[in-house]
Design a protein that fits this description.
- The complex is a heterodimer of chains A (about 280) and B (about 170).
- Chain A is of the alpha+beta class and about 280 residues long.
- Chain A has one domain: Thrombin, subunit H, CATH 2.40.10.
- Chain A is about 30% helix and about 30% strand.
- In chain A, the strands form two sheets. Chain A has a six-stranded antiparallel β-barrel with strand order 1-2-5-4-3-12. In chain A, strands 6-7-8-11-10-9 form a six-stranded antiparallel barrel.
- Chain A is globular, with a radius of gyration of 23 Å.
- In chain A, about 30% of the residues are buried.
- Chain B is an all-alpha fold and about 170 residues long.
- Chain B has one domain.
- In chain B, about 70% of the residues lie in helices and about 0% in strands.
- Chain B contains seven helices and no strands.
- Classes of the chains: A alpha+beta (about 280), B mainly alpha (about 170).
- At the A-B interface, helix 2, helix 3 and strand 2 of A face helix 3, helix 4 and helix 6 of B.
């Protein structure tokens, strides 16, 4: 007993060191599903409050550019409306089609904290459960896909950025609809990698990459980026370098995209795979 | 008591500097200075090592909370706090270092302080960046980030040490 006590006293620094490092490691490993932790929710409210005050000041300096982006997007949407109206008018008969109902709802949000320099980047937004945000909603800016919501508190939410090595997105080449998996390798924040594209697919530099709609998070056809000439060959598949269309260093205003039929879709997919 | 207050002010100032300024410094994803480690460096020479460890953990934990990286900074800062007494003992030159004084370039010389700071900062950054990536793939890429960030962090710490007010 005495020698045990002596031992503990002698190595108390080492023991405290090991305990503290163990605590830190447990925190790191449990942070993958951290959005469930209550303690973190409280911390997020405080840091969210501080970050919001700072961002309020920052946002004034970006107004001009944000306006330009909004005008460009409005123009694009107007073109789309025009197209839809001209197609539907001739000889339209009313057929009740449950599939053509509204599938997605949109919510605007402001980025109040963001980073691009870590391996696992997260984005804090000023919308929370009070505004109807739930985990699993997609986040996009007017220029392209940004991330997906992983944590929600009452007034704030945290999105996993596309610039997070854990993030995977199902994306396709707009021209020929071949789809692959888009992920970030943790290096340059302007480029992501599109893998699992079959060897024989003809690829031209500058091709548009859009979301495939195969996951329940994003609607199909949402802009992700453009192909750059760089490609890696290996085996049956090629990996393509994609220039992301959203500039993560100057994100200010984003949209949250909620899929209204998501649960239904996931339920039926699960039902089939379980059998 | 006065002395404790002194360190509390350093703690708050360094955390605020880190969160508001240095967390926003990013050169092409390679350089992320973490100057808050300076708090671990300037604690008194003769601080009991277990208190040093607890303070290290607390410092890292506060940074973790505000940057949403649970445990990563706590881990790295405890590592730095554990290494500090060892770095000091390897590097004994200054007989002038009384137990009560805070390690600084003024009491122990610029050269001594630089070697001391760069070693502790390197240990901190090495564990921080590798824990953050959580793999040894891209080993040299991560190592490059460690080295560049260590250089920038040490530069700022030495600069702050030269201009920091003395009692």
């Amino acid at each position: 007993m005495r020698s045990l006590l002596n031992f503990l006293l002698r190595y108390k620094t080492l023991i405290i060191f090991l305990i503290l490092e163990a605590v830190a490691l447990v925190m790191i490993s449990s942070s993958h599903n951290y959005h469930q932790s209550v303690a973190y929710g409280a911390a997020r409210s405080i840091s969210g409050f501080v970050a919001k005050r700072i961002e309020n000041g920052h946002s004034y300096f970006r107004l001009r550019q944000v306006n330009q982006e909004l005008i460009a997007e409005n123009l694009q949407l107007r073109h789309r409306i025009e197209k839809l109206e001209t197609v539907q008018k001739p000889g339209l008969t009313s057929v009740s089609d449950s599939a053509s109902g509204i599938r997605y709802n949109y919510l605007s949000a402001r980025v109040i904290n963001n980073s691009v320099n870590k391996q696992k980047n997260f984005i804090t937004l000023d919308r929370g459960s009070r505004h109807g945000v739930t985990t699993g909603m997609g986040v996009a800016s007017s220029t392209g896909v940004v991330g997906v919501i992983v944590g929600v508190s009452r007034n704030y939410s945290v999105a996993m950025s596309l610039l997070n090595t854990d993030f995977k997105l199902s994306a396709s080449i707009a021209q020929n609809d071949y789809f692959g998996s888009l992920a970030w390798n943790g290096r340059n924040y302007r480029y992501a990698q599109l893998s699992e594209i079959p060897h024989h697919v003809a690829i031209t530099e500058g091709d548009t990459i859009v979301t495939s709609g195969y996951s329940a998070i994003f609607p199909p056809g949402l802009m992700v980026g453009t192909l750059t000439g760089d490609l890696k060959k290996g085996g049956d598949f090629v990996t393509l370098k994609v220039l992301l269309s959203a500039d993560f260093k100057k994100l200010t205003d984003v949209y949250l995209i909620g899929n209204l039929t998501r649960h239904e879709r996931e339920a039926v997919e699960e039902e089939v795979t379980n059998e | 008591m006065n002395r404790t207050l002194h360190y509390v002010i350093y703690f708050v100032v360094l955390i605020v500097l880190q969160l508001l300024i240095f967390n926003n410094i990013q050169f092409s994803g390679y350089v992320n200075p973490y100057v808050y480690v300076m708090f671990i460096l300037i604690l008194p020479m003769a601080i009991p090592s277990w208190i040093l460890l607890l303070l290290s953990f607390m410092t890292g934990f506060v940074i973790d909370i505000f940057s949403g990286t649970m445990g990563v900074h706590a881990f790295a800062t405890v590592m730095a706090g554990f290494a500090r007494p060892w770095v000091i003992s390897l590097n004994v030159t200054a007989e002038s270092s009384e137990p009560e004084t805070s390690p600084s370039s003024q009491t122990s010389g610029l050269r001594w302080f630089f070697i001391y700071a760069v070693t502790v900062v390197f240990i901190h950054h090495l564990s921080l960046f590798f824990i953050e990536v959580f793999s040894f793939s891209n080993f040299f890429h991560t190592l490059l980030r460690v080295l560049l960030s260590t250089a920038v962090t040490t530069f700022f710490i030495v600069l702050f040490d030269i201009i920091r007010p003395r009692r």
